[in-house]
Amino acid sequence: MWLFDVFAWLYNLSPFTGALLMWFAVLVATASLTMRFESNRGKLWGFVVSASGAVIILLYLESLNLDDDGKALKAVVSNLVVMTLGGLGSGLLAVAISQGPDEAEDTQARTFIRERLLNIFEYAFFFIGACAFVLFVTSLLPALLQKPVATEHEIASLLVVFLGAGLGYAIAAGPRRLKNWEQLGAGMLVVLLLFLLPVYVQGLLGLWNGARTAVLSFHAVAVLALAWTVWRQRINARDAK
């Protein structure tokens, strides 16, 4: 038990311990992917993990309640995350683009994007877009009645997420639109999703303080509905075979 006590003491020693642990985990995961898959696919996955990890860590840092000294240290940690993970992701993406895949890698990547990745993006954009639309209406109506539960900026953020998710869903749901551009299109969808997630969280935080129970209940129902839809589609696809 003393090891757990030492770890707890070290973890509570600084409010940034959790962010640094996540930073280290993302670095290890990125390095593992690039070493495990030495092809361009590994570099692209390393870029996705590195960029996604940086966004998650920065959102975590923004959620911390800090004094003035803590805010100064937060700026240092944020710069560390951006320079290391952001630089690492940009480097991996640049190498993958400059080298270019061979014919076998290109065929494999296009097949994976068409058969798997676009379906994931389709579910993700539909889920985020539907949630953002419901929360947008939920926050707009009280504002029109002069009883706002969120600021105008947060309401606008939800609208931006809804429109952006609609664009992403329209692209992902029509694979023919990406014919001969699958890899570039998948990269653009990743960038769009990484842009929408922090904006969605920002709008969500505006409703969190005033309607926490409603937000939790709605997302729980939405997750269950999405899981049911995915399960039914898999059952139907298996029966069709």
Automatic annotation (TrEMBL):
Keywords: Membrane, Transmembrane, Transmembrane helix. This is Uncharacterized protein. The chain crosses the membrane at residues 6-32, 44-61, 73-97, 117-143, 155-172, 184-208, 214-231. It comes from Pseudomonas mucidolens.
